[in-house]
């Protein structure tokens, strides 16, 4: 009888603790906690702060004055905001061309032939260089006096073009410059996705007589949905926050014709035009809502497709 209490005490001593019992739950949370904290502090909190600041008139130094929806009402009659918004939609529509272009380049490079690594490196090169370098390269390319574009046009007997000096052409010229590295990024995503394509499905499709466009549309593209989703999200975000190329190539000109919302926000909130923090925050909120709407729509579409496939 005297040994019973000792056995019970030993059992309590060796009983696993809370951490040991919940190790599979706690360990991932411990790894995720730093990232979640950084995300909350550097993303979620600034977004909430921007929403709040958009209801104030503030120069960044003095006391903020609550003005309600006045900043948003001013946006409705602001011609520069209208031009910036319209340019953003141009960026959105034309920037999405990087996705099919990246896909077709990836299909071309996804083969085992002599020298294919060299071709992959050449197509990959635009992605690793800075946007500032891309902007400078295309500024020289478009230069009306010594640029390569006008040199080519002269060879065909055509008149020279001042692309960045023409309000009707400047935005399209900058978008073309942005498509160069963005296409390379989409190509990398699709090359990675093509490595995960099930070869058995391709072989089965070939036995059923599928080839060419039918093979691509019905067999390969459905297996590339994860890569397509990432490409859409990154391309939409890149199109809506297109700031650096505009700053390098035209600085919003000529006559403000190449402004987008992110650049106009910078002009109003931080540049020499005035330190209007509240007005700049209102522009940022509009930009955020547009971005959120596009991404939410695409997420919902993907969810519906996967739900229907089950």
Automatic annotation (TrEMBL):
Residue stretches in coiled coil: none
Chief location bin: membrane
Compartment(s) of residence: Cell membrane
InterPro entries the UniProt entry points to: ABC_transporter_permease, MetI-like, MetI-like_sf
Keyword Cell membrane carried by entry: yes
Keyword Transit peptide: no
Annotated PROSITE patterns: ABC_TM1 (PS50928)
Segments crossing the lipid bilayer: 25-48, 91-110, 122-142, 169-194, 215-239, 278-300
Keywords: Cell membrane, Membrane, Transmembrane, Transmembrane helix, Transport
Membrane topology: Multi-pass membrane protein
Taxonomic superkingdom: Bacteria
Pfam family, one: BPD_transp_1
All residue ranges annotated as the ABC transmembrane type-1 domain in the record: 88-298
Family from the record: Belongs to the binding-protein-dependent transport system permease family.
Name of the protein described by the UniProt record: Sugar ABC transporter permease
Organism per entry: Parasedimentitalea maritima
């Amino acid at each position: 009888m005297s040994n019973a209490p000792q056995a019970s005490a030993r059992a309590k001593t060796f009983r696993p603790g809370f951490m040991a019992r919940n190790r599979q739950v706690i360990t991932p949370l411990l790894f995720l906690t730093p990232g979640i904290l950084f995300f909350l502090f550097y993303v979620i909190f600034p977004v909430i702060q921007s929403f709040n600041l958009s209801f104030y008139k503030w120069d960044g130094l003095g006391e903020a004055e609550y003005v309600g929806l006045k900043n948003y009402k001013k946006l409705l009659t602001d011609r520069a905001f209208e031009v910036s918004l319209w340019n953003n939609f141009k960026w959105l529509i034309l920037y999405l061309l990087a996705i099919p272009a990246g896909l077709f380049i990836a299909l071309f490079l996804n083969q085992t032939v002599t020298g294919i690594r060299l071709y992959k490196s050449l197509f990959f090169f635009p992605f690793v260089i800075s946007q500032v370098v891309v902007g400078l390269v295309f500024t020289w390319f478009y230069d009306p006096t010594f640029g390569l574009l006008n040199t080519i046009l002269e060879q065909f007997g055509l008149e020279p073009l001042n692309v960045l000096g023409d309000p009707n052409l400047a935005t399209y010229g900058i978008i073309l410059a942005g498509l160069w590295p963005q296409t390379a990024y989409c190509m990398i995503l699709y090359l990675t996705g093509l490595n995960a394509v099930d070869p058995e499905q391709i072989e089965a499709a070939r036995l059923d007589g599928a080839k060419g466009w039918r093979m691509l549309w019905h067999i390969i593209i459905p297996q590339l949905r994860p890569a397509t989703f990432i490409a859409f999200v990154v391309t939409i975000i890149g199109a809506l926050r297109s700031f650096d190329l505009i700053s390098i190539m035209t600085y919003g000109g000529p006559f403000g014709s190449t402004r987008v919302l992110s650049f106009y926000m910078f002009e109003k909130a931080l540049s020499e035009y005035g330190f209007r923090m509240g007005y700049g925050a209102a522009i940022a909120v509009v930009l955020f809502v547009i971005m959120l709407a596009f991404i939410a729509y695409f997420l919902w579409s993907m969810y519906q497709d996967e739900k229907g496939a089950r």
